[in-house]
Amino acid sequence: MTRRTDNRETRLPVPAGELPAFTPVPRQCNRHDGWTEDRQLRFIEALADTGSVEAACRAVNMSTVGAYYLRRQKGAESFRKAWAAALDLGVQRIEDVAMDRALNGVDVPVYSYGQLVGTRTAYNDRLLMFMLRNRAPERFADGRAKGLNAIGKMDLEREKKKWRKEWEAERAASAGKDEQQVLASLNAKLGQMHERWWTQLSPRTRAAFEEYKRLEREDEEAGYRCWDDPEHEAYVDPDADYADEAEDEPIPLPPPGWGEREVEETEEENPRWRSIKDEGWG
């Protein structure tokens, strides 16, 4: 079945030198209604003009499914690079058209009672500010960078992972050095605190403290243990018979009937009974 010629394939010529040169994807069957070399070239040209894959496919009377299938074929490396370059060029042209509309406005038809009476020029201030913020962010967007596209976000994530690995490697390499530096800094601070405390003591207190340290060293050298010293309150006599110590006194039992209560039974009287008795009816 021969594909009918579509008038949408007729396009304006693309200026020379703007399109990237590429090697067409080799095809096993060179069908006249398939992705021929000429049709691939015109597809890239249309993609550079419109910035839209769907519009470029309509321009060459082909489907978008076929275009993406062609892009995945073996030997389509040059075609894929030309595709990406054409999209960038198409986006630039779209930006130029948007800027032209933002500056010069667009003609909008004016109707009166259902009849076209003329046109007026409409300006889109929001579109103008959008273009200014993206083309001159240092002046109109507080110095913020332009919004990233999908490729820019992928590159940013890749750089973040790379920076993360470098930071972890540097941190692992300097872990030992940092620990030694922290310990040295703590020891220096403790030494300064001890020196400041020592200078504030009186001569008598210093002498007493030095004597205390001397006696402490003697006890450590002699292997002193408090539970072996009879003069210490923690001394444990190995010859003492602790089983003969007085047993705990038994707890006395409560007296019989301590839990029983005597409940006084009271008969509740009706107030009318008392009044009747008082009046002599009883």
TrEMBL record:
Biased segments, Basic and acidic residues type: 1-11, 226-235, 269-282
Region (Disordered): 1-20, 226-282
Annotated protein name in UniProt: Helix-turn-helix domain-containing protein
Biased composition regions of type Acidic residues, renumbered to the chain: 236-250
Organism: Qipengyuania aurantiaca
